[in-house]
Amino acid sequence: MVISRISAVIRAIGFATYKEWAAFRSHMAASLLVGPVLFLVQVFIWQAMYDGRETLNGLSYAQMLSYFGVATLIHYISFDFADWNLQMLVRSGKFVTFALRPLPHWLFALAQKLGHRSLALYVEVLPVMLLFIFVFGVNMKPAAPCPAILSILLSFLMNFLVNYCVGLTAFWLVRAEGVRRVFLLLKDVSAGVFIPLSFFPDILQKILFFLPFQFITYLPTRVYIGHYELAGMELTLGQAVGLQAAAVAVMAALTLALYSAALRRFTGVGV
Amino acid sequence: MRGIALCLAAVMRTKLAEQMAYRSHFALSVLLLVIGDLVVPFVTLLVYNAGASFPGWTLHEALLVQAVFTLAKGIAFPFFFGMVGTTLSQVREGTFDLLLLRPRPVMMMAILTGFDPDDFGRLISGSVLFGVALSGLSIPSGFAWLQFVLLFIASIAILCAVSLFLSGMLFRWVGSSRVFDIFDAVTRFGMYPGTIYSKSVQNLLTYVLPVGLIAFVPATALLGRSGWGTLWALLPAAGILLLGGLFWNRMLRGYTSAGG
Amino acid sequence: MTGLLKGRDVRVKPMIEVRNLTKTYMTHERGHTLREVAKNLFHRPMKEVKAVHDLSFTVQQGEMLAFLGPNGAGKSTTLKMLTGVLHPTSGEVRALGLVPWKQRRQYVGRIGAVFGQKSQLLWDIPPADAFYMNKAIYGVGDREYKQTLDELVSLLEVGDVMRKPTRQLSLGERMKCEFIMAMLHRPELVFLDEPTIGLDMIAKENIRGFIRSMNSQGVTFILTTHDLDDVEMLAERVMVINHGAIVVDDSLSGLRGRLGEKKSVRLTTETAVTGEGLPGLSIVERIGPLEIAVEVDTALLPLKRFIREFNESYGIIDMSIEQLPIEAVMKELYTEGLSFVSSAREPEVIKR
């Protein structure tokens, strides 16, 4: 009963967001240029880097391209800006309209993300994937479909939770847009968007292993390709996804705790 | 001409005053820019540490390309690139009309209001990178420096032209922050030694879409690897700047006649 | 502000001459259902919208003209074309002897504009700094700048206010500074788009007083507003625009005259009023069992007869009689606007 009501709410919010975004689909479709162009640069870089060698950091040339191809797609699937949206609501005082609704804002935001990502699925993800496969000849076949899909879904949640927590800081730090942007940039670096984390110095790898960021890009990409290792640890696909699920659960608990603290502050201090 | 100089001075003064109203914010955004600029060099460093390299380029030589790129941004961005952001928000919010109410050329007003002192922060990251890169290289000759300076001017002209193209697009493509992603994607080619691209792509990047001129060509000159012939590259730079200006004005006309 | 041109023969040459001004633009139609939305992804049907249709009028030096009309009637579009920001689809405008959108730079150097909803001030720094920037942009000389600024500052009583960061100012103080910003280069013609929106009564009074005093010095004002008090206290001439066309171009008193001889009457009676019965009488609202508001058309029902008959039938305890408010005229014009046939005071100007 409750579940069906919530799912109806999520569907309604998701559909409204979908329509909102459909009007701006050309903005989304810019990814059809941006994604392949950035990928083309990667192709040239790695072609040069692999000149006269079979593997680099344990990855073959084909695997390296798969890494960036898959990482790009996961980036589009799990992309959101919940942080920006939330801090804008807090700073402009519009958050109060959400505090008055019988629905926690995080659920609203998650429903919104579901809405615009389902549009992205065929405006961004599918066309870019086809380009990668047929134009660049990248191997985009998941090593094992089930863990890959599960891992991408968890990445979707993880990225949302991390961004949402960043947004929640707006309840305490009103003018800290700069800090948040620094943080998000470091998030991308630590997630393995720019280069596989296995390239990092050992000590950094050990630290990154325990931070939530690798679960957004690095781990799901590695699971997709079929082989996970970081900080000298090799996990089977099942173990990797299990670890990711546990991390998402911990992050979700953290987010909920931070959310209720933020609400207490909102109602108490009236940010 | 004097009027324009006075305008520029007045705008710079107010922009600095605006920044000083939020000093901590200013410091943070400079920090952000520095960190952002260092990501690609950091990745390059990691790859070289893993034992790979761009064939024919030492780490310091590769970093020199990225250093020149950052320095060019450090000069072109405060003056020109800010207009992309201001056109984005002003056209969306309808306040761009206010610029049309000023008795000055609209392009000049758009560039002036976009003046962004934060971006001078890139000169910090650029200089650090430049220093690191040069520390591992033999000292360039005076001839190389001269070539470099001339080509560096071309580099700034190209970044200015790109700003005009992106800003112009925003009259039609209202409110799309994706132009920044497009900029990053297209100019990404310019952050690496041009020799890694196939010959046809290299030509494309020098003469058609001259992003290779932003950093690769000036850096090569500084490394003493090119002759006077390289200075032909100034032509496409001037060409694209002219095109950028024409495009911007054309899009502005579209805006004022369609508008609403 | 020094040029006192009021006494001049205004018939010589109008300050603004608008002929057959038309603006149409294309817009997308958007679907609502899932199927329509999905279809719209690939094809969006276009629709032509006539924002302004065939406007013609003139404005003389020193006039104060108000554009009125419901939201989306075409007021803003007209204002944008008159300021040279927007090109019309067809038609002509000559203002200050120039074509606004063709000789834009020359033209905008001589006009001023205040938009109630678009601030020209810079949020984080004091207005004084923004004024200084405009001085450079408009190329105002040092001495002239100082003199004008002093004059405006004392007239609007902003003194210290302009040295505080804009974000710390009240809306009223901010609006005063917006006016200074717009008047620093001594424009001959000033456009105001909802200049008093959101202001409290005192701030509104200040702003209106300022506009009146500038107008008495010969500055021509054209304003759009939804605040009918603005119109009553400022405008000599009112132009009602609806559906992109001029519905009425008249003086304020002329506009009132259109109501006929109607009065608004509020009554408390001894027994409840049962029906209308009388010709020329309509019940507007029943406020309580014994209290009622009615409208009396005195052409059909003289007041004397109305009072006598009501007193005999229901027994009048208390009563107030007022002119119908200007709102009543506006409501009528906005809702069925086009049925009103214009009787502009300068008929030769309006060529249909």
TrEMBL record, chain B:
Annotated source species: Paenibacillus harenae
Record key words, sorted: Membrane, Transmembrane, Transmembrane helix
Top-level taxon of origin: Bacteria
**Which segments cross the bilayer?**
27-50, 62-84, 120-139, 145-171, 204-223, 229-248
Q: Which InterPro entries match?
A: ABC-2_transporter-like
Q: Does the keyword Membrane apply?
A: yes
**Pfam families per UniProt:** ABC2_membrane_6 (PF06182)
Its name, as the record gives it, is ABC-2 type transport system permease protein
